[in-house]
Amino acid sequence: MRPAVRRPLLALGVLAAAAALGPLAAPGDPLAVGDVLGARLLPPFATDPAGHWHPLGTDRFGRDLLARTLLAGRLSLLVGVLGSALSGAIGTAAGAWAGWRGGLPDAAVRGLADVLLAVPRVVLLLVVAALWGPGVGTTVAVLGLTGWMGVARLVRAEVLGVRERDYVGAARALGASPARLLWRHAVPNALGAATVATTLGVGNAILLESGLSFLGLGVQPPAPSWGNLIAGGRDLIVTAPWVSLVPGLLLVATVLACTRLGDALEGREGDARGGAD
Amino acid sequence: MRSVLRRVAAALVLVWLVATLTFVLVRLAPGDPAALLVPPSATAADAARLRATLGLDQPLAAQYGRWLAGVLRGDLGDSFAQGRPVARVLGEALPASLALGAASLALSFVVGVALGTWQAVLRDRGTRGGRRGDAALTLLTTAAYAAPSYWLGLGLVAVCTAGAARWGWPSWLRLPAFGASDPGGTLDGWAAVQDRVRHAILPVGVLAAVGAAGVARYARAAVGDALTGDFVRTAVAKGLSARQAYGRHALAVALPPLVVLFALALPGVVAGSVFVEGVFAWPGVGRAVVQAVGARDYPVVLGAALLYALVTVFANLAADLALPLVDPRRRGGAATGRT
Question: Does residue A14 form part of some domain?
Fold first, then answer.
């Protein structure tokens, strides 16, 4: 694997492992209200009266911020991956159907994609999440339903190209049903491009989820996500800025790793002359 | 000319479809706006009366027909929560959003194109230092691109209010973090202008930082491709200076994608302002939408969706139509009417 691909993958792996395992190792329950009077709003690197060390400080209820940020990472990563995976699945299905059948299905899929692309995704997310009830389920569903257009376009193009190949004609001559042709020959060809596009969508989905949660329309407290942790520290930004800024750092690191991975997979990082390092 | 008209018509159809989709999404949503509007002591009959006044008791198709007929006459209906015409609610918020968007878009492009061009030239040198500089700038722009605008905004608020006071920064660096102007409104003349500029620095800075990072990523690729083109090498071989070769030839090729990007970036800036306007209490459309959504103020939500769709669709159309004008290689196509 090239270093440009390996490094962000490694970073994402470490982040995911930390989010999965980190909260287990932390002292105290990151959801329970702790020693509010003694331990609230401790700055980073402080030790509370009970002797626990808080490398990133504590929030207004005396809870360890590192543990909460990692715990929030679980939900944020999960929502981002699920939302992007859902959009990848919808996009693959819609693109394959449109490319294979052509005609009316093709026009319908392209029309729907145009309509969805004509409203900024943030606005669409905002309206649907607010009016249909915010929550993890709604957020994943809306991310999936508003993010499939790019994948669909890629898959459609691949399927269109594959249709005319000789081996597809041969399979058809051997009596393969259209469903089998599509499933065994056309879709696997398009899967590579669809997977890359879906992976690229993860960073964006995490960013959108955090935005929705920041506005109170995504993951609902007390369940922590990066967005609602940042929102929770908003009124403390002058007195205890770390409460908002720490979760954001992890969020930026995650989205940065996703973007770098995407750049590497699409071959954008390489030097036009020297190739990749 | 006919093809231009046809594309305008297609764009209008698209806007109509978006309006219809939004209408269905909004009106099929669970929940009752009337329940939020009546006082807690109101009876069920009061709520029913209010629903009838707002037209919410009629069949969906009738409501849709009435709303669409109104839109075609330029009447977006009345806000549920404020009782004023939607056009006035959005119209009052629009100038603030446009000012914010225009300033940050212009700044994004100036900074982004300069940064991206610099990176491409550094990379083109092929030296170790050049590659390192390019890699460092790429990391910087990617990180800025990955940062949520509201988080950057909160960070700037912390630095420019509390931080500036604590670290003893000069007073002109202690920037106001909320609103678009001094709440008292007692200033006039030059002082009022200064006050507005100071209020705009933080929100414009955040939007421009994120925007410039995105533009720089594109500009680096576009200029980089142009610099490695054979025609640039030929121009250099024929004796042109590097400045002439880059400035005249490479930029002419790199420019068209950036013009398109400008139009395509417009909706992003408009949408991105949803968060920034919230953080900085900037009285724009984004903040109005967030408020309307929270209050189930359906007419305002629909009106804003229509506004966003119009901006997006016509920005795309403008990009399509402008491309042949700036890119000689695309001439003779749709823009001259020969399809």
Answer: no
pLDDT value of position B336: 41
According to the model, what pLDDT value does residue B97 have?
87
CATH number for the domain that contains residue B188: 1.10.3720.10
The verdict on B19 touching A (C-beta cutoff 8 Å) is: no
The domain containing residue A122 runs over which residues? 83-276
**pLDDT for position A90:** 94
Structure-block tokens of residue B287: 């903040």
Domain containing A126 — which CATH number? 1.10.3720.10
- Which of A211, A234, A271 comes nearest B148 by C-beta? A211
A98 contacts: CB under 8 Å, gap ≥ 6: A105, A106, A108, A109, A110, A152, A156
Give tens-digit pLDDT for B13-70. 989 998 888 888 888 877 777 776 777 677 777 777 777 777 777 788 888 888 888 8
Question: How close B180 gets to chain A, by Cα (Å)?
Answer: 19
Is B145 part of the contact surface with chain A (CB cutoff 8 Å)? yes
Number of domains forming the structure of chain A: 1
Predicted local distance difference test score (pLDDT) of residue B338:
36
Phi and psi angles of residue B118, each rounded to the nearest 5 degrees, phi first: -60, -45
CA distance A151 to A164: 21
The answer to whether residues A233 and A244 touch, using CB atoms and an 8 Å cutoff, is yes
ipTM for the predicted complex comes to 0.83
Test A127 with B271 for CB contact under 8 angstroms: no
Establish if B220 touches chain A: CB-CB under 8 angstroms. Answer: no
The total of structural domains in chain B comes to 1
- Could you tell me the CA-to-CA distances from B52 to B48, B58, B79, B293 in Å, in that order? 6, 8, 15, 21
Q: A38 to chain B nearest CA, in Å?
A: 24
Whole-number percent of chain B with pLDDT over 90: 1
All residues of chain A having their beta carbon less than 8 Å from the beta carbon of residue B120 are: none
Scanning every residue of chain A, which has its alpha carbon at the shortest distance from the alpha carbon of B277?
Answer: A215
Residue B157 domain boundaries: 94-284
* pLDDT for position A268: 55
> What mean pLDDT comes out for the span B294-303?
85
Does B122 score more than 90 pLDDT?
no
The pLDDT value given to residue B111:
92
Of all residues in chain A, the one with the smallest CA distance to B273 is A122
- Is B220 part of any domain? yes
